[in-house]
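Help needed: design a sequence for this.
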């Protein structure tokens, strides 16, 4: 069950406003998502959002194809509401109005994963 992290650069000094935007986030219509072929491609298991100074990081816990996660999120109305409400606090404007624009941003904002550890991969077993 992998994790991914998406980073947002924001204007410092707006941590409370940004927290408020995410506190009102409308969850996805379904945690299950499909690939381009319409077949099941995975499932969102959870997310968490952190903010400090000029950085917001969203952690995504998922199963399946990560590219399909971005496409699934791009189709969610709650995501577009958050994007609209975050716009005044972003350090750089981004094109996320369309599903294609959001998917591109999602790909480009994904942080490089250098380690993922879990009890399932612990040498002592589970």
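Sure. Designed sequence:
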């Amino acid at each position: 069950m992998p994790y991914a992290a998406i980073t947002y650069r924001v204007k410092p000094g707006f941590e409370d406003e940004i927290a408020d935007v995410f506190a009102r986030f409308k969850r996805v219509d379904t945690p299950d998502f499909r690939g381009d072929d319409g077949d099941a491609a995975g499932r969102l298991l959870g997310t968490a959002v952190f903010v400090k100074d000029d950085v917001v990081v969203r952690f995504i816990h998922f199963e399946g194809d990560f590219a399909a996660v971005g496409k699934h999120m791009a189709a969610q109305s709650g995501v577009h509401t958050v994007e609209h409400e975050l716009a005044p606090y972003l350090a750089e404007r981004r094109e996320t109005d369309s599903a294609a624009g959001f998917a591109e941003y999602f790909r480009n904002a994904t942080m490089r994963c250098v380690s993922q550890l879990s009890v399932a991969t612990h040498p002592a077993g589970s």
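The first helix runs from residue 15 to 23.
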